[in-house]
Amino acid sequence: MSAMMVKELELIEQFRDMNLVCEVKPRSVMLGMLTINSDFLDDIKEAQKLDVKLVDLMVGENQPEGSDFKLDMHGVLRFRDRICIPDNAEMKRMILEEGHRSNLSIHPGAT
Questions:
Q1: Does this UniProt record's set of keywords contain Transferase (predicted)?
Q2: Cα–Cα distance, 111 to 108 (Å, whole number)
Q3: Is residue 109 part of a domain?
Q4: Residue 97: inside a domain, yes or no?
Q5: pLDDT digits (tens, 9 = 90+) for 41-89
Q6: Torsions phi, psi of 70, nearest 5?
Q7: In the chain, how many domains are there?
Q8: Residue 77's domain spans which residues?
């Protein structure tokens, strides 16, 4: 019994050390290992200002009433609480590489 408790404690400590972000939604729970630090968020915010489509959404032009696009408290454009990534190839590549190299990524056919 004590061996099981030790193993359970080890698993809890490993889970804590993964720095997972857990967000509870009304109908779901979102877990992720990719966290956005303030420098990266600032980079996204600045890049959003250079994307013509996102700028139109930020100023409210061509946006239907009750739109799901909103500016958060940091001035970052979001769609239903998700960050809008500008049409910037380098930024998209960096995000995809981070997700691909994550310890929790799953590759079909890999054992």
A1: yes
A2: 9
A3: no
A4: yes
A5: 888 999 999 999 999 888 876 566 778 888 888 889 999 989 999 999 9
A6: -145, 150
A7: 1
A8: 2-101
Tell me, yes or no, whether 78 lies in a domain.
yes
Q: How far, in Å, CA of 45 to CA of 84, rounded?
A: 9
Query: Residue 62 contacts by C-beta under 8 Å, 6 or more apart in sequence?
Result: 56
Q: What's the rounded Cα separation, in Å, for the pair 53 and 85?
A: 11
* Secondary structure, 3-state, 56-90: HHHHCCCCCCCCCEEECCCCCEEECCEECCCCCHH
Predicted confidence at residue 78, as pLDDT, reads 92
Q: Tell me the pTM.
A: 0.56
Backbone angles phi, psi at 65, to 5 degrees: -65, 140
Whole-number Å distance between alpha carbons of 65 and 54: 17
In a domain, 17, yes or no: yes
Report yes or no: 76 and 83 within 8 Å, Cβ to Cβ. yes
Q: Is residue 56 within 8 Å of residue 42, measured between CB atoms? A: no
